[in-house]
Amino acid sequence: MTDASLLYIADPMCSWCYGFGPEMRRLVAAYGDRIGVELIAGGLYPGNAMVLPPGQRRWVLHHWAEVQAHTGLTFDFDAAMPEGFVYDTEPACRAVVAMRRLAPDMALAYFDRLQGAFYRQARDLTDDAVLIELAGNLAPDADAFAACLNDPDTREATQEDFHRRHQFGVRGMPAVIISDARGYKRLTEGYQPFDTLRKRLEKRLTRV
């Protein structure tokens, strides 16, 4: 393991983060034994309280279709974001932080599970009961996860994640940043294929 680490800034309800999932999994599989990976919940629309209007829903689905065309990933366009849906990504981000606090090695797997539930199964990630159910066998137990999900320290840590995203100047997600002895270097802000990321990472590692 080197002293370098990757900071992965993403939101479970960000469609390009979903599209980027396979590329990030390849990156972790290729470098996870050499480089630590820290998942930071970026907060796409945290705290949003407005019901998604039909026109906005069509706009969101248009972006989903772009991601599908680019990546070939599956989406449930029909059942997604039903009438009355509030696109608040804070609960899902907080759930990721809760998993990271309870079982750090499971955070990325939980993040992937949340994405699949939202985009392929139209599950409501603003519902605590859904977030707890999806934690399943990844968390120590359901009661512990439920308690951690609504723990004030978890809420504070989630806000800190949002703050870190802004500290790094990240506007678009997903973003991957390498942290090493030389400081921070952004490998990508937005979708990039694995081969591009690999070349950028190898270039950085050989210069450390």
From TrEMBL:
Domain of life: Bacteria
Transmembrane segments: none
Pfam families on file: DSBA
InterPro entries cross-referenced by the UniProt entry: DSBA-like_thioredoxin_dom, Thioredoxin-like_sf
Domain DSBA-like thioredoxin: 11-201
Matching Gene3D superfamilies: Glutaredoxin (3.40.30.10), putative protein disulfide isomerase domain (1.10.472.60)
Protein name (Swiss-Prot/TrEMBL): DsbA family protein
Species in which this protein is naturally found: Spectribacter acetivorans
Taxonomic path: Bacteria, Pseudomonadati, Pseudomonadota, Gammaproteobacteria, Salinisphaerales
